[in-house]
Queue: 3 jobs
Job 1
Amino acid sequence: MQELAIKFNVKNVEFQGETAKHEIDDKSPSIVRDFNKCILCRRCVATCKNVQNIGAIDCINRGFDSCISTTYDNSLNDVNCTFCGQCIEACPTGALREREYIDDVWAKLKDPDTYVIAQTAPAVRVALGEEFGMEIGTNVTGKMVSGLKRLGFDKVFDTNTAADFTIMEEATEFLERFKNKEHLPMMTSCCPAWVRFTETEYPENIPHLSSCKSPHQMFGAILKSYYAKKNDIAPEKIFVVSVMPCIAKKYESKREEMKIDGICDVDCVITTRELARMIKQANIEFTKLDDESFDHPMGEATGAGAIFGATGGVMEAALRTAYELITKEELKELNFEEVRGEKGVKKATIKIGDAEVKVAVAHGLGNARKVSEQIKNGEADYDFLEVMACPGGCIMGGGQPIKSSKIRSEVDIRRKRSEAIYAIDEKSVIRKSHKNPIMQEIYKQYIGEPGGHKAHELLHTHYSEKEKYCIDE
Ligand code: SF4
Ligand code: SF4
């Protein structure tokens, strides 16, 4: 619709008449609702209810008074919205959009006393180019790093490095629980929308969640402790900006549980779309940029970190590491095809040494509800569960470039972006998280053992029940 408005030079609405006035809801750290822009197409309602199976929003009233609202007309912050952002991807007018933090980032970049670090999630590099007219699924890692450096970031690091830490911690935690048969299946915790979904809809399943922070939060904690100390920078002077395909990560970074001694692990989260806006605001010709590499040493990552961006990727990366940790033998076949692909819930039994590990992978909150019900009712026949709230995983996150319904119906966007992610893994020199040299060095010099005291202090967290209002009740 916005494309059509530009094409036909529609700048103002010439027809006068009565219009409904709605207050802008900007209470949530993730989403802004401006229903003055709403055309009541109800795409957001259909996505939230039918795809994500949440029902946080619905159409209320009749005739002229019709509008999209929440339970008790609360802010999205105060209902069972998970901040998955899938409604934003569906909205044609921008009535639903991410809460933007661009001005905060510009202010810090201009402040000579602040050391501003960017870290970028695996899914951003296979979608950012689309905002500049490039083919869907183009890997623009080098240009993205180059663009961030031109914007003025002091350092540009790779969140994939932190994904390797996540695997070390999560695999260690899983092996312990598997040995003791405790709180199985263990559920991954790197998707903040899935964590919020569990906290609001299935609080009885909280003990099943891994206590690991998500990769970007782990990275923030390491940057403000190990990295700050090593480079003699006061942690308060470091401003960590996570560039993410996700809007739930904005909310996650503001959670009290994500602070250490009152200092946030991550100061600000911007989406793929916001990064593209910043690059455009700075008049950088993105497509003409030369490729640059992430800064050393925190930019060294493995292929296992890269596949976190696609559904099944966290599980596959964890299996590569768990296999070698248990058997002490080299894993020859690294691709676990059983956990790849678009099926809503994938299950597999993997033989690791003498043990048989049963795993499941779900993506999209509709599928998450199915596995959550199984766990709640004690019917889950698997030991380890990966869930990503967005259908397809982070590559289809609520902060990724918005595509018209025409493109969405003609092009398999999920497949193109996911092929680009797996190609990064295939080309990587190191493809197992536990082999990441900088990660090994940091464990040796600073953290100690995976799952140890310091690791828990920096890299783990806890979750608790959150209040839920459901519109259908
Ligand atoms: S962010 Fe997700 S859960 Fe919240 S209203 Fe939108 S689709 Fe529903
Ligand atoms: S998708 Fe956007 S325009 Fe359509 S009903 Fe929802 S908020 Fe309104």
Job 2
Amino acid sequence: MTQGPVLIVGAGHAGFQVAASLRQHGFGGRIALINDEAHLPYQRPPLSKAYLKGTGGPDSLMFRPDKFYRDQNIELITDRAIAIDRGARKLDLASASSLDYGHLVLATGARNRLLDIPNANLPDVRYLRILDDSEDLRRRIASSKHVVVIGAGFIGLEFAATARIKGLEVDVVELASRVMARAVTAEVSEYFQGRHRAAGIRIHLGVQVTGIEADGGKVTGVSFSDGRHIAADLVVVGVGVLPNVELAADAGLPVASGIIVNEQLLTADPNISAIGDCALFESPRFGGSLRLESVQNATDHARCVAARLTGDAKTYDGQPWFWSDQGDDKLQIAGLTTGYDQVVMRGDPAQKAFSAFCYKAGRLVGIESINRAGDHMFGRRLFGMDRSIEPAQAADPGFDLKSALA
Ligand SMILES: Cc1cc2nc3c(=O)[nH]c(=O)nc-3n(C[C@H](O)[C@H](O)[C@H](O)COP(=O)(O)OP(=O)(O)OC[C@H]3O[C@@H](n4cnc5c(N)ncnc54)[C@H](O)[C@@H]3O)c2cc1C
């Protein structure tokens, strides 16, 4: 059991959960959650989904009301952590104060990758990561006519679908040859391309935005690498994120495409862990280093670290899963759908309900489900039991998936 204060930098999904789980596990020492956003800890996924569409206030996003933090004696500190003195076990904050720690948890998340083209810093060029971004985009959706979305990843497409539902003209520009290319199978990309196009969204694949045109500081359009121009009064950029590793790197901790942690999520310093979007963790299950950007990863990491700090050290062995809501469609992913060599379809895209079962060397490694929550839940349970089913079984509509869980 860790003695002394636990300081947590970042109060996103990972930071909040580690604080809550520490108390659940009976940790009685000081817990301080340091965050540079002036909100109670809140959920991020609705920012590009229900919250963007709706009229509810920020309270609807909060994990817990402020009473929870008082009752649980979890200190919320709105400040920015700027340096770690590992020798003295002190964390320096931007407000010039410094805090002692027994254990430090880095849950610093990720920030948007910024566009580096002319006029990219104009006020009508927006990103979507934090609550303030979503609030701002809600207002802009109401006052804009034509948005160009740069990047057809999850967030770009979720935003595009909402903007279209709200009546905007929408163009999506993507450098790759299909949408969500790094994350899903070609079958699922094709389905979503069709659905978004049917909703009236124009999707431009294999092109790059080379410039943003403006008049008097207001965006008027964008130009493409193929010479085309598209009129627009709003540009939304979703071209990926960069993990916030600088605090760790400046303290001399090893970083690569994330803060490097071992299979127990511990950095090279036994008094510092790193979790969630910022952590590049060693995964015996998947045989290598992984950095994932999902709520499941953040919260399961947090639970693993809270357990270790209260005397129950284990190898992190979370089962990845993810979801994305785009228009009327719900995409759910169980497992890791990378590195597969065979895709087996179950269900019917024409019926708007199907799953892509992804196999690697004959073993099921992931399932991408569209409007088939049963397949998704099956996948999560199956992977939790370390089992697989044969490709022929997955393809056979008469095969009862539940029988594989018995
Ligand atoms: C719009 C949007 C939609 C998403 N939708 C989904 C979805 O549908 N499903 C899904 O699984 N995942 C989704 N994600 C991803 C998911 O939200 C992230 O994986 C998750 O938030 C990661 O949690 P985290 O705590 O690691 O990091 P974050 O949530 O990024 O939190 C880190 C916090 O630390 C703060 N911070 C960083 N550095 C410092 C510092 N030095 N001092 C103080 N504070 C600091 C940051 O400001 C931030 O508030 C979505 C993300 C976004 C942005």
Job 3
Amino acid sequence: MSDPLRFNPRVATIPFKRVGILGGGQLGRMLALAAHPLGIQCRFLDPAPDAPAGDVGELIVGEFDDPTALDRFAHGLDAATFEFENVPVAAVEQVARTVTVSPSALALSVGQDRAREKALFQELGIGVPRYRLAATLEEYGRAAAEVGAPCVAKTRRMGYDGKGQHVLRSIAEADHAWRALGGAPAIFEAFVDFSFEFSVIGVRGVKGEIRTYAPIRNVHQGGILRTSTVPAPGLPQALGDAARVHVAAIMERLNYVGVLAVEFFAADGTLLANEMAPRVHNSGHWTIEGAVTSQFENHIRAVCGLPLGDTSSRGTSVMHNIVGDPLNAAVRLADPRAKLHWYGKEPRPGRKVGHVTIVTEGPTG
Ligand SMILES: Nc1ncnc2c1ncn2[C@@H]1O[C@H](COP(=O)(O)OP(=O)(O)O)[C@@H](O)[C@H]1O
Ligand SMILES: [Mg+2]
């Protein structure tokens, strides 16, 4: 550890000034807010003129498949990334002809397809729920029969916040699933009777250095994350450590640069990997106040080739999402320890419009 009171001139110059971010949602907004103290400005590309990140950086309004918009976006950038995993891979590939995009198009393409995620986890020896793939009505029936009920059918691509999923209570419901998912290519997974869900967020720098944050216990309702707690109550140390090792292995395998989040189920004292997100993640919002360096700052640092910051926790953190109802925010702020993050979005049922974090003294990790 270097002497904190001694100024190190080697880090006095930040070579990167402008980072482009594909997507202008709340994740982009929080990335820009973390970049600003480092002297780094963010530019966004998003189809929505009222995208939340537009308040804190230059917003180019355009579609992700518009080559002219992509060129305008890429022009003059020092580095680029994305905050939304459904950005078309072709958009990343076009931007990558002008400026380095991290994580890579490969990592993005794996993160867009639940089947490729599961195959990667299995290749690395990480446990996953029993699953089968299906693309036709007949295959839906066979996949349900082979996985058994209860099971959950998910579209392989484009799902988020529980969207694109259908739970089957009996294998005879395969045709309901087919209709519910619009006949899309799907993955059928055994419904896991988990004790709880947790996630691990890691970051890898351009030179391959890796840091992981303390595992996070997550509660979802209706497929939407509601609360995240660190340290994860009830998570045995060995399971959390194993998950951190798995996340490091995934990042190494993908030659990953940036922040990666992996969601796990804890069931019967073991872990099963659910999915990964090749970006900053909602379950890591607590790191803004609850870790020495936030996931947002570390993502910017990684993408810009800067040294990574310490991922240690400062205490016990609880993050509550504010979903749909803005009144919720005022109630939360009644606690003087509460730190509110409001995304500037129009409240709608089921929409994440902000979050609140409370950090208290406690064990760190
Ligand atoms: N196989 C499963 N067994 C039990 N619950 C599941 C299963 N898959 C998903 N879920 C529940 O649904 C939530 C959302 O599913 P997930 O696969 O993470 O999709 P996304 O977050 O992309 O919408 C999970 O966090 C979990 O609560
Ligand atoms: Mg999920």
